[in-house]
Every structure is written in C-alpha cells, then in structure tokens.
What we know:
The protein has 3 helices and no strands. The protein is mainly α.
Amino acid sequence: MKINIGRMERTIRIVAGLVLVGLAATGNVGWWGWLGFVPLATGLVGWCPPYAMLGISTCRVKDAPQG
C-alpha cells in the first residue's frame, strides 16, 4: 500500500471522521454517523482504495534525485 492521500486531505478526513463518530456516539445524528470510521481510517492510514484503483494521488510529487 503506497500512501496516496496528501497531508491536508488526511487532516480533513481525520477531523471529519472524528466529528461524525462523535455525533453518532452522542445520538445527535442517526446510524449514518458511524460511517465516519471510513474517512477516519483512510486518514490515519494514508491510503484510499478507490484512489488506488483510479490511479489518483493527492500527495505532492517529490523531485527525482539528481546524480
């Protein structure tokens, strides 16, 4: 698994996931709030399966080493 989610997107996914799970745990939203575990997990791991299947990466491209 190669990391395919950039730093900013990972942060957004983690925060959104925590908010959704928190709202579901407190009963402020319905069952769908538990789906917050999906962005939380992908944000923590840094890898998104649909991105991998589609060849998408939001990571910055590093310069090739010169030599």
